[in-house]
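Ligand-bound model needed. adenosine-5'-tetraphosphate.
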Amino acid sequence: MAENDKKIVFSGVQPSGNLTLGNYLGAIKNFSRFSEDYKTFYCVVDLHAITVRQVPAELRKRTYETLALYMACGLDPEKNTLFVQSHVPQHAELGWILDCYTMFGELSRMTQFKDKSAKNAQNINAGLFTYPALMAADILLYQTDIVPVGIDQKQHLELARDVAARFNLIYSDTFKIPEGYIPTDTMKIMSLQEPTAKMSKSDPNENAVIRILDSKDDVMRKFKRAVTDSETSVRYSEDKPGVSNLMTIYRAFTGKTFEEIEREFDGKGYGDFKLAVGEACADGLKDVRDEFARLMQDKAYLEAVMKKGAEEAYGYARRTMSKVRRKIGFVN
Ligand code: AQP
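Prediction:
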């Protein structure tokens, strides 16, 4: 298919911590399925990361690491545009403009804002509040058709669609209205310690979170300690959130159905089951860990990928921005 006829895919991950199994199964693992037939933009969203206070040296290091993880998870920089958000200034520019087309009431209803302001009560800044308008800008800049994300981002994506439609109504067609791509089988991986809450990279309890780069020993230990329930049967059910979460993870790595998993562990206790989940997960992530370690040795290569990605992204972003500026009435 000619490059210009391809549909456009955009997504991003914040370099706000060591990435988790949730980031992997809910988002990054799905990115590469679009590489061949779509024009894909995958961004390290550092502007979003500073809505929560970051240690500068850590943020810089994690920006390289997130890019390396994209590649270690199978994203070829020759087939995907991989870049860092702050390297393309149109994100911040369109972010500001869309702030002016996003309503206070809409932003107040965002559950992520409510959750994050509860967790960061000492730093409820304006950026945390307007985060969804910047996310809308990220997506709309590239005239995106499809946005692969976990279910926690659905509300933000719907807001991006509403803002795009509002802008189009005022000024005539400017932005493509994007669709979400939310994986049905791994849309929300839960905490291992509190299985009714999302697994989050900023969770202070290390036992709750599997990191993509955890050693096999760490993965095994964390699964062994995972919270289950007082029964012993491996069965998928809403009233067994811990076991159901482990089954979801096991299914993602083995391709087995829930029925097959229930049969496999029939009559066995949770101990055997947790060991099997740990083995499947640690082995499934081994190639990613090895490739990540190799890529991190070559900082110059990572910088070359960032630079090429930013140049490609810039070309697309500039085209949308010039249209937006003209429609609003800015002098070019
Ligand atoms: N637990 C999860 N299950 C499925 N998908 C998930 N995602 C995140 N956690 C899970 C998806 O990963 C992508 C990138 O997320 P992000 O880094 O932009 O921010 P987030 O959703 O706020 O992720 P975290 O891990 O919870 O970060 P912190 O702790 O910094 O807030 C998104 O597509 C998201 O849906």
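Residues 199 and 209 are 6 Å apart (CA to CA).
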